[in-house]
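look at this:
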Amino acid sequence: MNIPLSVDELNNQINGMMETTFSSVYVEGEISNLTYHNSGHIYFSIKDQNSTISCVMFKGNAQYLKFRLITGAKIVIRGSITVYVPRGTYQILCSKIEPSGIGELALAYEQLKTKLQTKGYFNKDLKKNLPKYPKNIFIITSNTGAAIEDMKKILAHRYPIAKMFLIPTLVQGDGAKEDIVNNIRIADKLAQRKKDSIVIIGRGGGSIEDLWAFNEEIVADAIFEAVTPLISAVGHENDFVISDFVADVRASTPSNAIEVSTPNINDLIMFCDGMIEQIEDRMKMVFYNKDTELVNMRLLFSQHTFSKRFDFTNQTLNSMKINLNNILKQTLHNKQKEIDFTKQMLDSNHPDKKIKQGFAQVTKEKRIVDLNQLEVNDLVTLETTNFLFETKILKKTKIEI
């Protein structure tokens, strides 16, 4: 007689068969019904044109997932088939998920780049300027790699007056992203206490897996939140990581980070020499101008000494004296002429002049006149010493010779 199985027994038998028969599956499909649970587990389905199957990835494996699952995305799953006994449903227990047609890391990189760009992490207006003459350089990298040795050599040759502070850091592998974040924060706090400081994070070249710590979101957050100007110098010139886009300045290599952040001391020496020459030339010109000005002032002062002023006053007085003498002479001369004229007049009107026989003085309106100027009917006076004769011109006839 057959004994029936309980539902639980049947589901457990099916589960055993499933786990034995489908212990490893490799399947491709499109994501649907996606749920990220608070526990860290991921529940979703994959489907094609005809069928759908439930999937789950537990937290232990989900924490290593580099990219974020998106509804509608096509993925490839590695895992096993299990039966959820309480419901009698089967599902794929995912151990690894990769994007279909593109690498997992490449997709994760593009997803994070898009996310951070949307958040404004790449905004050029938020980038901080590097100090022109840095005094302190905080380096976040491995203390055993070739990168730090190259940076030391270049700084010693290029700008030895700056101080370098190395903060040894894991740059790849487990714990690298946490170590980088922690040391960025430490360096930022130390740099804020010292004026003209910069922070450089980086490492030498490697594969995308080797460089992946610099593609982590928590590293990008730490860079964006840093107050001190920060340079990202990861890998080689062709390597671009997320930290390059978030940092204030991207350097192609760790060595290049020193070059872009420091001036060349030889250029500074030449510049200083040129400045010294310019200053010397300007000082020579200043001294020459001041010396010329002093000579002119001495000459001007010599022209205004008491003796010079006395000589000038004396010359002025002599000139005034000469002018006065000339004026007096001219005045006397003019007065002498007036006297001579008056004397002539007196002489001509002297009574003795009037007593000559046959002569009389002819006046018109009490003024002596020239007989040639008299006209007919003019009233004139004839004056002698003893008599005045009032007469009238009756006729004027010109004597022809």
